[in-house]
């Protein structure tokens, strides 16, 4: 199924790359770079400190610095669990996450402003420092131990800790390293912060093959083709909304990104027009749309862009593809299996459950004796085992008794002349749910009039607002919650037809 390699702990994928390409560059951050041998040495020095002091759960509080990369490896080397923490997050949230995860030690960039607050908030927290000599022998870790913990948003407003095991990552890497045929000559982008699970793809897909990881901070989007050419990037991975950013900066000219072999997108719905524009800019690249929640270890399906993609697209959105062959899925609607409904998945990439067992409530189907993770995503079965992504179950709202898919509203608005991109949100006004649309394109467009001639009245947004650019959250995704709050502020609780 996924090869005959002996099972590996997560850091053993890095040491496999080390054995393959010890003198190749493992990591490049700006003008600084580390070979596999050098990065291994730095990580072993941090690991020496962790093992000497009995660290079990280690917070990584650093941005794009050597502490974040070597700290992650060091934690795994020490047989501990890594908890990535972002310096960009509010201090109170960072402290909550560390407390929920039971962080006992932190590896930090000491210039991070949140560090003293974290130390003050967690009595007994120890700040690690690299040992003078590297750890010679790595302690044992169990295959089913948590390699790292990431946090997802909880419905109560409290972050939910999701542990991902060595076994989960081993299953993912075995399949995907074969799928993408990455080797020591490849250079892989690293666009995601480590608090976002897709960062683990960036790092360990490259390191497992002896390839180079190049840190890709947001400012490079201003001239992305130049960056890709200078770094010789062959594998690109980002959220789909990055395409619009590159387009605005003039980076999608045909043939502008010739070094790319793979262009992968995940984390949001990928629009067909965006995928085709990117493919024209990177003609030697295979474009794929990946899908998967954190709880299923990075991604669990992928659609490869082809001539059939246009026929399979629903509301202009690229399919999420068939599931990986080592996973199983069900589509459940009103408690029974069907061809459209909530996607539920099981298999070796399924995480063991949230840190707080109370968060597991309602997240699993167990009727047939298996644990099926309820993704909260609505899908439709297509031909050839392909799945169409129809949006979040919680992006299906009730308006005056009608079920409304917000993705459908966005699609209709984007068909209007002058509209480049649209986001629909639901918000509360005067005690009832209303629709708002924020769009990028020509200012002052009449959106409601044309929409009223195309769709039923309940699909016509009450508020239509032009924006120069759509806002994004810390993970690079469109900030839909922020837009909903903005709609409430703009209307002041009143029903507004156009703004």
Automatic annotation (TrEMBL):
Q: Which positions fall inside the AMP-dependent synthetase/ligase domain? A: 19-355
PROSITE patterns the UniProt entry points to: AMP_BINDING
Q: Name one GO molecular function term.
A: phosphopantetheine binding
Could you tell me which InterPro entries the record lists for this protein?
A: AMP-bd_C_sf (IPR045851), AMP-binding_CS (IPR020845), AMP-dep_synth/lig_dom (IPR000873), ANL_N_sf (IPR042099)
- GO BP of this protein: amino acid activation for nonribosomal peptide biosynthetic process; secondary metabolite biosynthetic process
A single Gene Ontology CC annotation of this entry is: cytoplasm
What the entry lists under PANTHER family is as follows: FATTY ACID SYNTHASE, NONRIBOSOMAL PEPTIDE SYNTHETASE
Q: Under which name does UniProt file this protein?
A: Amino acid adenylation protein
User: From which organism does this entry originate?
Assistant: Micromonospora sediminimaris
């Amino acid at each position: 199924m996924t090869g005959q390699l002996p099972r590996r702990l997560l850091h053993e994928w890095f040491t496999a790359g080390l054995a393959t390409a010890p003198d190749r560059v493992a990591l490049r951050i700006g003008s600084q770079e580390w070979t596999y041998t050098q990065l291994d040495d730095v990580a072993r020095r941090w690991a020496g400190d962790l093992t000497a002091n009995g660290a079990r759960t280690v917070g990584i509080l650093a941005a794009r610095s050597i502490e974040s990369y070597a700290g992650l490896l060091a934690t795994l080397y020490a047989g501990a669990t890594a908890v990535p923490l972002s310096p960009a997050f509010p201090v109170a949230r960072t402290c909550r996450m560390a407390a929920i995860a039971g962080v006992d030690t932190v590896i930090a960039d000491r210039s991070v402003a949140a560090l003293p607050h974290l130390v003050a908030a967690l009595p007994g927290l120890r700040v690690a420092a690299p040992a003078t000599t590297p750890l010679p022998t790595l302690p044992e870790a169990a295959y089913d131990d948590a390699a790292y913990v990431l946090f997802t948003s909880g419905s109560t407003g409290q972050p939910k800790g999701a542990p991902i095991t060595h076994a989960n990552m081993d299953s993912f890497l075995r399949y995907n390293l074969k799928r993408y045929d990455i080797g020591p000559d490849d250079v892989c982008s690293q666009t995601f912060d480590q608090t976002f699970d897709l960062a683990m793809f960036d790092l360990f897909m490259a390191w497992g093959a002896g390839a180079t990881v190049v840190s890709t901070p947001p400012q490079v989007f201003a001239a992305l083709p130049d960056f890709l050419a200078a770094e010789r990037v062959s594998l690109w991975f980002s959220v789909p909304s990055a395409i619009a950013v590159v387009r605005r900066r003039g980076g999608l000219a045909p043939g502008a990104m010739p070094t790319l072999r793979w262009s992968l997108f995940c984390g949001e719905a990928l629009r067909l027009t965006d995928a085709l524009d990117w493919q024209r800019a990177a003609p030697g690249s295979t474009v794929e749309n990946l899908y998967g929640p954190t709880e299923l270890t990075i991604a669990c399906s992928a659609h490869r862009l082809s001539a059939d993609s246009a026929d399979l697209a629903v509301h202009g959105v690229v399919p999420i593809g068939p599931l990986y062959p080592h996973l199983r899925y069900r589509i459940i609607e009103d408690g029974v299996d069907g061809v459209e409904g909530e996607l539920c998945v099981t298999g070796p990439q399924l995480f063991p459950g949230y840190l707080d067992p109370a968060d597991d409530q309602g997240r699993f189907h167990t009727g047939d004796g298996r644990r099926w993770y309820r993704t909260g995503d609505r899908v439709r079965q297509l031909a050839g085992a392909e799945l169409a992504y129809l949006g979040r179950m919680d992006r299906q709202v009730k308006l005056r008794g009608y079920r409304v898919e917000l993705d459908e509203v966005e699609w209709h608005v984007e068909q209007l002349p002058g509209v480049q991109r649209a986001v629909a949100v639901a918000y509360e006004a005067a005690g009832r749910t209303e629709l708002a649309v924020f769009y990028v394109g020509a200012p002052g467009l009449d959106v409601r009039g044309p929409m009223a001639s195309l769709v039923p009245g309940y699909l016509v947004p009450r508020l239509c607002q032009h924006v120069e650019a759509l806002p994004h959250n810390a993970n690079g995704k469109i900030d839909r919650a922020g837009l909903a709050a903005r709609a409430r502020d703009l209307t002041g609780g009143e029903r507004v037809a156009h703004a």
